[in-house]
Amino acid sequence: MERKKNFFAGPSVLPVEVLEQLRDQMVEYDNKGLSMIEASHRGGLFEDMYDECLALFRELLRVPEDYDLYFLGGGATLQFSMIPMNFLRPDTVADYIKSGSWAGKAASDAEKIGKVNYYYDGSANHFSSLPKASEVKPSKNSSYLYLCSNETIGGIEWQDFPDTGDVPLIADMSSDIFSRPVPVEKFSMIYGGVQKNLGPAGATFIIMKKSLLERQNPNLTSYLDYSTHSKNKGLFNTPPVFSIWGVKLVLDWIKKNGGVEGMHKRAVEKSAIIYDVIDGSSFFRSPVDPTFRSRMNIVFRLPSEDLEKKFVSEATKEGMLGLKGHRSVGGLRSSLYNALPKEDVLYLAQFMKDFERKNG
Ligand code: PMP
């Protein structure tokens, strides 16, 4: 099979060896006479793999012992509701940094639950920039400060993170988790869908400082209450078994390829290849402040929408998928997640140069 060059924003490219391991062990896992996805989540087969997955996740991302780590269902989107339900106290506000579509969706869900303070709203500059991390100071009576570390649609990424003192810092890291080291201690909660850098869609990882639960709303139904999941290490109800198995295999692959430092190096190298083409031309244009450009989702424009359509159509014929920008913003986007081979990025860079030569 000739594999497509996969620039989808998520679900997205996975390491071929992980797909092969899933295939090889789909019918029978580890000579046990059944598949992982046929086994009870209360039995040894799943729980042994799950414990290894959590241990590996903790080791690679350096998640301290006083943080819970588990997976939930419902996508990252369910967290947009659970976070304010659990932590937005009635007599306070929650600070949201509206850096683009995803932080915006989280904030508008929070508005249904309590009082949101738009600490920063990038809509005036079309989400092309971010506040300086060292200057971010949450409101006095803030329940938490919320940010999205990488806006998958806008292609904008925090390069470092604010220090929020006693105010809990909460981050959606769906699209850049495991692409670089993270100072987990700065955060009270980090979460994200796994379907970009970590595995098949289905699971949402939750990293939560245990002490955050002391600030929690005690009147929630069981699934919506984080303390339920904290007490059951994420096994309160049936977990997304297949997705978690995939995550375990991707983590093995990340470990073999240099851990988060290795992934960071790859991300810096791969994104520079495309940004160099953009910066070296007056044909391609990046709408994002260079200080905050994403290494995972590179957003760019051409002089006209017709040319953008032509670009996507010719790229598709050459086996490159997923280069169309999100339907809400248009333009072009190439997602360069961990598992995307560098050769595919070089191929895209050459295609861009050729396209400019023919159409510029
Ligand atoms: N946050 C970010 C940054 C995302 O990119 C996405 C999905 N692309 C979401 C949240 C929503 O994730 P899900 O589809 O898993 O609910």
Give the structure's gist in a few sentences.
By secondary structure, the chain is α/β, with parallel strands linked by helices.
Features:
alpha/beta, globular, binds 4'-deoxy-4'-aminopyridoxal-5'-phosphate, Aspartate Aminotransferase, domain 1, 2 domains, 360 residues, 36% helix, two-stranded parallel sheet, 9 helices, single chain, Aspartate Aminotransferase, domain 2
Describe the structure.
With 360 residues, this protein is an alpha/beta fold. The protein has two domains: 16-256, Type I PLP-dependent aspartate aminotransferase-like (Major domain) (Aspartate Aminotransferase, domain 2, 3-Layer(aba) Sandwich); 259-359, Alpha-Beta Complex (Aspartate Aminotransferase, domain 1). The chain is 36% helix and 16% strand. The protein has helices at residues 16-26, 44-61, 75-87, 101-113, 226-231, 241-256, 259-279, 305-317, 342-359, and strands spanning 5-6, 67-72, 93-98, 115-121, 142-148, 150-151, 156-157, 169-172, 189-193, 204-209, 297-300, 320-321, 332-335. The strands form four sheets. The chain has a seven-stranded mixed beta sheet, covered by helices on one side. The site of 4'-deoxy-4'-aminopyridoxal-5'-phosphate has 11 residues, from helix 3.
Give the fraction of residues assigned to helices. 25-40%
DSSP E strands, number: 13
Average per-residue pLDDT, rounded, comes to 97
CATH architecture verdict of the largest domain: 3-Layer(aba) Sandwich
What is the C-alpha radius of gyration, as a whole number of Å?
21 Å
Terminal Cα separation, in Å? 34 Å
Strand order of the largest sheet: 2-10-9-8-5-3-4
In the CATH hierarchy, the third-tier topology of the largest domain is known as Aspartate Aminotransferase, domain 2
